[in-house]
Design brief:
Pfam families: Lactamase_B. This protein is an alpha/beta fold and 339 residues long. It has helices at 56-68, 86-99, 110-117, 122-130, 134-142, 146-152, 220-231, 250-273, 279-284, 300-319, and strands spanning 14-17, 20-26, 34-42, 45-49, 76-80, 103-106, 158-160, 164-167, 172-177, 186-190, 195-199, 238-241, 323-328, 331-336.
């Protein structure tokens, strides 16, 4: 039975398997409400899959959840980060500065971390220009504060660049690169217990954003769809997502996500057939969220996400030969493919 979708943010340490606990940590000013951090008992301490957003309320929620299991923050032996987004990574950086536990991260995140730590805003502005959104979303991109980023982020202790088996005290986690949501996203498979720590790659009720990172992959949606398909090569496992309740079948949700993006690609191609030319124009003709809200209803940050995701869909349609694309004064213009 799937856990109620309305109760998953309740704080505490919720056992999802023997020795494995889901700990929802709050996120500031975010519609997702919480991020699931997973604690795996390992000898006299715990290993965390993801760590949360570095804000006081998340740190306190993590401390309290661990205390209910008889552990302290200092008992965290290792942090395995699924990806570099701040709600998964930055509290881990803060804890490491205090307690010294190592952090592992996917190799594909290296360009993104470098862009963030090197204060690269040119890449963001260049993408906005290509998307035809420079005059619409530039204020959001300009609000990027490099000092905040430098305080929040840092390099990991270990890069994971391939399928790797991570041996813990009583179990083995297989790290599997699943690029798409980010270039270096990882999932962790506990095949012995039938558990998939899926990060943001597979979420039970929403689709993860695609194409929102400072060092953009050449085909983020293509990467994501291939990564989803790769999970079908593994036996079905219980889905332990970063946002939302635990679900019984990862495979069933993978199929739903693949079907969703097939429909979304068709909708995106139809918008171009109906006259949209730039990424920004196309995003404005699509519905957003499960409620099919109009683009104009979204706040500026979510419009930014919507435009980035539309760019990923248009790029894949062009790669497949279903759309033509040409640059007009530095702006990508799409049109139906000529026979």
């Amino acid at each position: 039975m799937t856990t109620s979708s309305t109760a998953w943010t309740e704080p505490g340490a919720h056992e999802v398997a023997p020795g494995v606990y889901r700990m929802p940590l709050p996120m500031p000013n975010d519609g997702l409400r919480a991020v699931n951090v997973y604690a795996i008992e390992d000898g006299d301490g715990v290993v965390l899959v993801d760590a949360g957003w570095d804000v006081p309320e998340a740190r306190e929620a993590l401390r309290s959840a661990l205390a209910s299991l008889g552990y302290e923050l200092a008992d965290v032996r290792r942090i395995l980060a699924t990806h570099v987004h701040r709600d998964h990574y930055t509290l881990g950086v803060s804890l490491r500065r205090e307690f010294g536990m190592p952090i592992a991260l996917g190799e594909g995140e290296r360009p993104t971390l470098r862009a963030m730590l090197d204060e690269d805003t040119a890449g963001r502005m260049g993408e906005l220009r290509r998307w035809g959104a420079e005059g619409h979303l530039a204020e959001l991109a300009a609000s990027y504060d490099p000092d905040v980023v430098r305080r929040s982020f840092d390099w990991p202790d270990e890069w994971i660049d391939d399928v790797v088996d991570i041996e813990l005290n009583k179990r083995v986690l297989r790290a599997v690169p699943t690029p798409g949501h980010t270039r270096g996203h990882l999932v962790f498979c506990d095949t012995g217990s039938g558990l998939l720590f899926s990060g943001d790659h597979v979420l039970p009720h929403i689709t993860p954003s695609i194409g929102f990172e400072p060092a953009m992959a050449s085909s983020p949606l293509g990467d994501f769809l291939r990564s989803l398909s790769r999970l079908r090569d593994y036996a079905d496992m219980r889905l332990l997502p970063a946002h939302g309740p635990v679900a019984d079948s990862a495979h069933s949700r993978v199929e739903e996500l693949l079907e969703h993006h097939d429909r979304r690609l068709a909708d995106t191609a139809r918008a171009v057939s109906d006259g949209a030319r730039t990424v920004y124009e196309t995003a404005g003709m699509l519905g957003w969220t499960r409620r099919a809200r109009s683009f104009a209803e979204l706040d500026e940050f979510n419009r930014f996400l919507a435009v980035a995701e539309t760019a990923a869909h248009l790029r894949l349609l062009a790669e497949r030969g279903l759309l033509d694309v040409r640059s007009v004064d530095g702006v990508d213009h799409y049109s139906p493919a000529t026979p």
